[in-house]
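Cast an eye over my tokenised protein here and flag anything odd:

===
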Amino acid sequence: MDRERGARQLHLIDETVEIANALGVEVWLRGGWAMDFFIGEATRDHVDIDWFAWAKDASVLTAGLLHSGYEPLSGPPADQQLDFCKQGVESSFALLAKDRFGRVVVAGGPWAGEMWPQGMLDAAVGRIGALRCRIISPRAQIEIKQMMPVWVPGRPRRRKDTEDITRLEAALREQGTRPA
């Protein structure tokens, strides 16, 4: 593992949590770092840091990140996702909304209004060492990794996703919780 890159990413996760807390904005780790914060240790190298945030908070979050030295990147439309870079590390914030029933849904783009997994935001806070961060639930992590090739035709299941599913299921079994 690239320890320097991992340490830089952990620092930026901590910084992002501090910025979000100061702004009164909720953020949740998703992807590989969410898995690692659930397990309690870094399990592999990560290319970037993936987050969820509420679409209603996008402008406040953007202003806070820009003020803290994050640079905007081009990417999906701003109603779908916000992309930034700092210290050579990309951070992506997929935007969430709630439908009229209070369910968590995709905020924008071609899948706007589609539901995310039930209970996705109900996980306990994850941690690595003293660093604590909200994460999406491990069951939602598994469902997203399993369903991504179905939801996005043409995107094959990646080896790291299969390995992550195996790690998450093992961690759930260890905790005495039945995997999804």
